Amino acid sequence: MAADTFDRAANAARSASAGDPAAGAYAQACEQLNKEPRRWLVTGVAGFIGSHLLETLLKLGQEVRGLDNFMTGHRHNLEQVRASVGEQAWQRFTFIEGDIRDPQACARACGAPAPVQATCSGDGEADAGTDTTAGGGVSSGSLAERGRAGAGGPVAAVDFVLHQAALGSVSRSLEDPLLCHAVNVSGFLNMLAAARDAGVRRFVYAASSATYGDHPALPKVEQHIGAPLSPYALSKYVNELYAQVYARCYAMQTVGLRYFNVFGPRQDPLGAYAAVIPRWIAAMLDNQAVHIHGDGATSRDFCFVHNAVQANILAATGTDPAAVNQVYNVAVNARTSLTQLHAAMQQMLLAARPQHVPLAPHYGEFRAGDVRHSQADIAKAARLLGYVPTHNLAQGLRQTIAWYVEQAERA
Ligand SMILES: NC(=O)c1ccc[n+]([C@@H]2O[C@H](COP(=O)([O-])OP(=O)(O)OC[C@H]3O[C@@H](n4cnc5c(N)ncnc54)[C@H](O)[C@@H]3O)[C@@H](O)[C@H]2O)c1
């Protein structure tokens, strides 16, 4: 990790935590939101990144609606946010259980008029998902009091959409490209259409570094992309194209955030499609050797989830017209090989848990569809959004490992 990246992140974190107004755009955006709360929709709210967006927004005094079908997200993520923010803040959250493949669920989540559908049965409410206040069956919050979508009444349009719901994982998309398309492309289009119909101010969506495909240049600069290497990569690129078309044809404001390997607490360590950091922590805590795909030299720009949250808030609230209808890299501009990551994790786990027994990793086949090296140029996000990552890999990993260790000790 480059020393300058470390210093910059540490300085930003220090000044932000000191409440210094010169801390930059993020501190100012948070302050403004605190003064003038907005209404947000977070799709994929029960997932990893979505639940962190929810937590930060509730802590900033915002009203939040969340949409999720629990395909890969979990109720326990929502319960953890609830425990973290407290009951009072939790009252500002309304949860809608629904699927982005259903245009009616998307419309209700955005607060748009319901789309007319030939296939719609009955009153059109029952099959599109159920609204509950957060966590399922918890007492009503402020949005709910104004009219719950599930009760058939209208809900107010949201100001901002942070669209995170999608099926991640390159491998999953190779196994089921049709499902990937249905959720990541058709579901995305449903959300975009609903956001337009609701007249939302801005639609911020999770794009991906997978869009760089086979382009060899490092670091990755937004305008130079290669051919997609998987259905997942293609689906995320199609998202960007649809967002551009909606901006051009319907004067919508959209911002795409190309996340690079985001990690942090609450990322699912289980299943065949789990991301590398939580999967490895789970293996290490279970005294299992880690399996590395390839020779270990594969490298990534690992991005702590708080940086991704910052990018979302800046993307939604930024006032520079030049910053809108753009895509941005979201990472830290550092590159770490899998072997280096493994060594750093072993060291940190040992520090957090002296009884930990470090094991050498097993190296195996490369995985189909994987990009060999990845590193983000974050100058565009810095220039137009004022994005300054607050956490580098080491800072983020320490917090993440501490969280997983605590979970394991509780279990
Ligand atoms: N985590 C990363 O490193 C990374 C990198 C690049 C892009 N992204 C993108 O960021 C977004 C969030 O990723 P994450 O890591 O939090 O994943 P996640 O799987 O934890 O979260 C995705 C959420 O979307 C929900 N969802 C899936 N299909 C749905 C559907 N049809 N209707 C409603 N909800 C649905 C899931 O239940 C889950 O809660 C995704 O769009 C992903 O493609 C993530």
UniProtKB/TrEMBL annotation:
Residues 41-108 form the NAD(P)-binding domain. It comes from the Bacteria. It holds the Pfam family GDP_Man_Dehyd. InterPro entries: Epimerase_deHydtase, Lipid_A_modif_metabolic_enz, NAD(P)-bd_dom, NAD(P)-bd_dom_sf. This is SDR family oxidoreductase. Residues 157-331 form the NAD-dependent epimerase/dehydratase domain. Residues 120-141 are annotated as: Disordered. SUPFAM superfamilies: NAD(P)-binding Rossmann-fold domains. It comes from Janthinobacterium aestuarii. Residues 121-133 have a biased composition (Low complexity).
